[in-house]
Design goal:
The protein has 354 residues and is an alpha/beta fold. An eight-stranded mixed β-sheet has the order 4-3-5-2-6-7-1-8, sandwiched between helices. Strand 3, helix 5 and strand 4 form a beta-alpha-beta unit. Helix 3 crosses helix 4 and helix 8 crosses helix 10. The longest helix is centred in the first third of the chain and has 26 residues. GO terms for molecular function: acyltransferase activity. Keywords: Acyltransferase, Endoplasmic reticulum, Lipid biosynthesis, Lipid metabolism, Membrane, Phospholipid biosynthesis, Phospholipid metabolism, Transferase, Transmembrane, Transmembrane helix.
Length: 354
């Protein structure tokens, strides 16, 4: 392990990231709370401000993937469709096989400049989680209980609110509903067989109702569906802990732009269309497993500097008082304080196993 790799794996580095994320996140959440005063006066200004406040939080996680880990993501797509990415609203359909696939979706949004305004379909319980959940609440994220009878009206209502959203956004959705595992796949294929649907090898059976209501609610506002199929080279199995430890992964993402006019309006026909889409995604994954590549032209959108600039701003603002506090503690001369600092050092910087 080289010196940089060793440094990235140290607990003290992780502690710095966590401190900056939590402290800045709580500050941003407080500011977001104050912006509620704007809602009855100027709703669109409230939304624009919260898009930028949201970016202050979500971009820190993207920074870990793009700058700290250095993970590379090659996009395979139609060169004629590429210039439209980031310049239109889109529904992004992601496969859900890897622990960091949501982070790759955020990275895609960041590379095309729409991370701050982008949306997800998330569990309702997450709205009560400080920092990320509260941030999502203020940016009008769409929450669901996964009980369709309860969600039908609430999800549709939330989506309709996005029709006049002032910022460009990707609406990221995992139609499989949960991350792929062999056990879940076996159960899912039993359901597919009972319903007379074709089996899938690399995906779970998509849940069609949420997708259908999303398309119906955002039609004429969203221009296209971006069908995104993600995989990693050399059978890599990326984890969030690996990203935090600075491990570099190599992602390949196949992006197909499908104009929304091609998605049927009728719910039953839309469901059939989505099942066909997942059969095609399965074929792409099978081809990738055989050849190690996706169709279309490989492209690498450049990393934007703003995730790094944002983190450096918050780090410079928050780390100085933090380290000054530590220095004051050490200079106090307390034996207990000194022992605690020494213990923290040894826990944070364990000896290398190499």
């Amino acid at each position: 392990m080289d010196l940089v790799g060793l440094l990235k794996s140290q607990f003290l580095c992780h502690l710095v990231f966590c401190y900056v994320f939590i402290a800045s996140g709580l500050i941003v959440n407080t500011i977001q709370l104050l912006t509620l005063l704007l809602w009855p006066i100027n709703k669109q200004l409230f939304r624009k401000i919260n898009c930028r406040l949201s970016y202050c939080i979500s971009s820190q996680l993207v920074l870990l993937l793009e700058w700290w880990s250095g993970t590379e993501c090659v996009i395979y797509t139609d060169p004629q469709a590429y210039p439209k990415y980031g310049k239109e609203n889109a529904i992004v359909v992601l496969n859900h096989k890897f622990e960091i696939d949501f982070l790759c979706g955020w990275s895609l949004a960041e590379r095309f400049g729409v991370l701050g305004g982008s949306k997800v379909l998330a569990k309702k319980e997450l709205a009560y989680v400080p920092i990320i959940g509260w941030m999502w609440y203020f940016t009008e994220m769409v929450f669901c209980t996964r009980k369709w009878e309860q969600d039908r009206k609430t999800v549709s209502k939330s989506l309709l609110h996005l029709r006049d959203y002032p910022e460009k956004y990707f609406f990221l959705i995992h139609c499989e509903g949960t991350r792929f595992t062999e056990k879940k796949h076996q159960i899912s294929m039993q359901v597919a067989q009972a319903k007379g649907l074709p089996s899938l090898k690399h995906h779970l059976l998509p849940r069609t109702k949420g997708f259908a209501v999303t398309v119906r609610s955002l039609r004429n506002v969203v221009s296209a569906v971006y069908d995104c199929t993600l995989n990693f080279r050399n059978n890599e199995n990326p984890t969030l802990l690996g990203v935090l430890n600075g491990k570099k992964y190599h992602a390949d993402l196949y992006v197909r732009r499908i104009p929304l006019e091609e998605v049927p309006e009728d719910e039953a026909e839309c469901s059939a269309w989505l099942h066909k889409l997942y059969q095609e995604k399965d074929a792409f994954q099978e081809e990738y497993a055989r050849t190690g590549t996706f169709p279309e032209t490989p492209m690498v959108p450049p990393r934007r500097p703003w995730t790094l600039v944002n983190w450096l701003f918050w780090a410079s603002l928050l780390l100085y008082p933090f380290f000054r506090f530590l220095v004051n503690m050490v200079s106090s001369g307390s034996s207990l304080t000194l022992a605690g600092v020494v213990l923290l050092f040894f826990v944070g910087c364990p000896p290398s196993k190499d």
